[in-house]
Amino acid sequence: MNFTIRKCMISDAANVRKLSKGALGFDYPAEEFEKNIRRLMASPSNIIYVAENNGNFVGYAHGCDFDVVYGPKLKVLRAIAVEEEYRHYGAGTKLMEAIEAWAKASGAEGVRIYGGSERHAANSFYKAVGYNFVKPESKYKKDF
Fold first, then answer.
1. C-alpha distances in angstroms, 26 versus 18, 29, 139?
2. How far is the C-alpha of 143 from the C-alpha of 113, rounded, in Å?
3. What DSSP state is assigned to residue 72?
4. What is the pLDDT along the chain (144 residues), one digit of tens a residue?
5. Nearest partner of 60 among 31, 83, 80, judged by Cα
6. What are the backbone dihedrals phi and psi of residue 122, each rounded to the nearest 5 degrees, phi first?
7. Could you tell me the CATH superfamily of domain 3-128?
8. How far is the CA of 113 from the CAs of 83, 100, 135, in angstroms?
C-alpha cells in the first residue's frame, strides 16, 4: 500500500468524525465536530494529519502542545485512528512519524501518549513504534 500523509483539510471532517466514532467511540455532533476541526486546524499548537491510500481516506492523528512548569516542552498525541482494513500495513506508523517530525521541528523533547489500559491493540502499537510505558494514571472530569 502507498500511504500519503498530509495536513487535515476541512473536507476531511466527515471522515475524521466517522472514524473517531467507529474506532475510538467518540460520538460528537457533526456541526460541533466541524467547528472543532476548523479551530484546531487554525491553532499553531495543534496539528491534525490525515493518511490516504491512492486518494482514499485511511486514518488520522491529532497532536498538540503539552506545556507544563515541571518538565520539558513536549507534544501529546490526542488521537490516532486507522480504518480497520488498513491496519497493520504501516499507516499508523507513518502518522506517528509525522507527529514526531512536527514535535521535533517545534523544539519539543518528546511525545506523550495517554491511552486506556483496556485498549490492548493501541498499547501494543505504541510499544511497537518505540514508546515506553511510564505509569497508570487516573482520569477525572468536571463538565460545565
1. 9, 10, 16
2. 23
3. -
4. 899 999 999 999 999 999 999 999 999 999 999 999 999 999 999 999 999 999 999 999 999 999 999 999 999 999 999 999 999 999 999 999 999 999 999 999 999 999 888 888 999 999 999 999 998 888 899 999
5. 80
6. -65, -45
7. Gcn5-related N-acetyltransferase (GNAT) (3.40.630.30)
8. 20, 12, 11
